[in-house]
Design a protein that fits this description.
Elements lengths: L13 E3 L10 E4 L5 H15 L1 E6 L14 H14 E2 L5 E7 L2 E9 L6 E2 L2 E6 L2 E4 L2 H11 L1 H4 L16 H11 L6 H7 L3 E2 L2 E2 L1 H7 L11 E7 L7 E8 L2 H14 L3 E6 L2 E6 L3 H14 L8 E5 L3 E7 L8 H7 L7 H9 L9 H8 L4 E5 L2 E7 L9 E2 L2 E4 L9 H12 L5 H8 L3 H13 L3 E4 L6 E4 L3
Helix pairs in contact: 8-9, 9-12, 13-15
């Protein structure tokens, strides 16, 4: 059992010369210990607002010193009442002072474990008054208090060990960040990725050899649909690994499955996808940086004929709204540690201008929240690529005005290089399922870009140059 501590009074009370005191948000005055209950409430209220303060017995609330008898029993009585009626417990310092020749009791107190309760209720200091906290105000204090404890990114990954971290991945990161690699453990410590010699979740999901062995949501799901709804799937793929790998695969998957035109600059032809690369990259990074990792779901990308959707678990964090983000350029981060490390390698800005940047590149982008899932939706430009101009250069279709996807362009290249290549070989080389290969081939046939010569077995493909 913890013994209540307090400073024993001296035989001769300490003398204090002072100007007249005035009540404030951190100072309370009581005429005597007859107001001890009110004093306890004031202490709790001050702690909830400022985490420290002072209280005097023997001084009226207008600052007039009237004094009161202060004995060892007086100090012990004050200390016991504080101990019994304030939760969590605090251990104040209590002194017997002579002020203007009169004996007073001074109580100095502090504490960081708010909210503090006095007689079972929570109060907060407003000016020189004590206001009872509403249920909502009390809830907000608890949320702020437990914010770090509830964060997934700074929690320990219980089963992970140093051997599960890739020193190669870590060295690449440190080189880009302009930092030096020491040992694996020291490097993780310097990046604040260890606590009590245990590895944090962020270390595993960024630098783990196989993060999916420890966290099922170290995953990306992608799909291409034949229309504007999910009823007909052309291709579906899943990726597992660290966040840097997943971010790159997400971008590659989208760019591979949307239309690409070309801009001519002098003698150079530059690929221009129908969705701006910088906007796409920002949206993908935001999805992985700000998603709720306490949710088991993955980041999902859905490619329709009219749009591309990037979906991540978790609505906007910390009471933010899209209106506040766009009007006030503010941001709050659910995963502070992940965001800090992304910033070190220039993936994100500390100012949180992600949505603003996306809209500057793709003004028609839609952001919305549905059932705790955040959507970033890019409109596809469809056939508009064939005649559009970007940056003064003319965009043309990839094959004489025909708009085909990057995947279809790759198929054409493989057919041209090896006219006898089989569908199974195409599937293996392009890492998509056989049904998707067949649908792409049907599209190329319909556009009169390829023709089958001979039987299914023993025949070959003819690529028609246009």
């Amino acid at each position: 059992m913890m013994v209540q501590e307090f400073k024993m009074p001296k035989k001769e009370p300490e003398t204090k010369l002072m100007v007249r005191l005035q009540e404030s948000e951190t100072l309370e005055l009581k005429k005597s210990t007859s107001e001890l209950k009110e004093a306890i409430i004031s202490i709790a209220a001050i702690l909830n607002k400022h985490q420290k303060g002072e209280l005097y017995f023997g001084i009226r609330n207008d600052g007039e010193v009237i004094g009161q008898q202060v004995t060892e029993n007086t100090i012990r009585g004050i200390s016991q009442v504080i101990s019994e009626h304030i939760e969590p417990k605090i251990f104040p310092q209590i002194n017997n002072l002579l002020i203007e020749g009169k004996s007073c009791a001074k109580v100095e107190f502090d504490g960081i474990e708010k909210p503090y309760f006095a007689y079972g209720r929570a109060y907060i200091r407003v000016g020189d008054e004590d206001k009872q906290l509403s249920a909502k105000e009390l809830e907000n204090i608890f949320v702020r208090k437990n914010k770090d404890k509830l964060r997934w990114d700074n929690q320990i990954c219980e089963k992970a060990r140093l051997d599960d971290i890739s020193s190669t991945k870590l060295k690449i990161f440190l080189k880009i960040a302009g930092l030096k690699y020491d040992t694996l453990e020291n490097s993780l410590e310097k990046l604040k990725l260890m606590h009590d010699q245990q590895i944090l979740n962020t270390a595993v999901i960024l630098f783990g050899k196989n993060p999916q062995e420890f966290m099922a949501n170290a995953k990306l799901r992608c799909a291409v649909f034949a229309g504007t709804k999910t009823s007909s799937i052309i291709d579906m793929n899943e990726f597992e690994g660290d966040l840097f790998y997943l971010i790159e695969e997400a971008q590659k998957y989208v760019l591979k499955n949307i239309h690409t035109g070309m801009r001519v600059e002098g003698l150079r032809r530059i690929d221009i996808p129908e969705i701006d690369k910088e906007a796409l990259r920002e949206a993908v990074i935001n999805a992985f940086c700000h998603r709720d990792y306490l949710e088991p779901d993955s980041v999902n990308i859905a490619i329709f004929t009219d749009r591309v959707e990037i979906r991540n678990p978790g609505s906007l964090y910390g009471g933010l709204t899209l209106t506040k983000i766009l009007k006030e350029n503010v941001s709050k981060r659910r995963n502070e540690l992940i965001a800090e490390l992304f910033h070190r390698v220039h993936f994100i800005e500390k100012w949180g201008r992600g949505i603003e940047l996306i809209l500057s590149k793709e003004p028609k982008t839609i952001f919305k929240e549905v059932a705790d899932i955040f959507y970033t939706i890019f409109e596809r430009k469809k056939e508009g690529l064939s005649e559009s101009k970007i940056g003064g250069g003319q965009i043309s279709g990839q094959i004489s005005g025909q708009i085909i996807s990057k995947m279809q362009k790759e198929i054409l290249g493989l057919l041209k290089a090896n006219p006898k290549i089989s569908r199974a070989e195409l599937t293996a080389k392009l890492n998509i399922n056989p049904s998707a290969i067949q649908k792409h081939i049907n599209t190329l046939k319909a556009k009169s870009l390829i023709k089958r010569i001979g039987a299914a077995k023993g025949g070959y493909w003819e690529v028609i140059d246009k």
